[in-house]
Amino acid sequence: MKRVVIIGGGISGLSVAYALRGKAQVTLLEANALGGVIQTDRTGLYIVEGGPDSFVTARPAALELCREMGLESELIPMAIRKLYVRSGGVFHEMPPGFFLTVPTKISSVLKSGLFSWKGKLRMGMEYFLPRGGDEEESIGSFVRRRFGQEMVDKVADPLMGGIYSGPADQISLRATFPQFQKMEREHRSLIRAMRKTKMPEASPLMSLRGGMATLVERLLKKIDVEIIKSRVLRVEADKRVVHEEGSFEADEVVVATPAPAAAGILQNWPDLAEALGEIPFASSITVSLAYDRKAVPHALDATGFILPQSEGRRIHACSWSSSKFENRAPEEGALIRCFLRGEPNDPESIVREELRDLLGVEAEPQLVRTWRWPKANPVYEVSHQKRVSRIEDATPEGVHITGAGYRGSGIPHCIQAGRAVAANVLEG
Question: What's the CATH code of the domain at 264?
Answer without folding.
Answer: 3.50.50.60
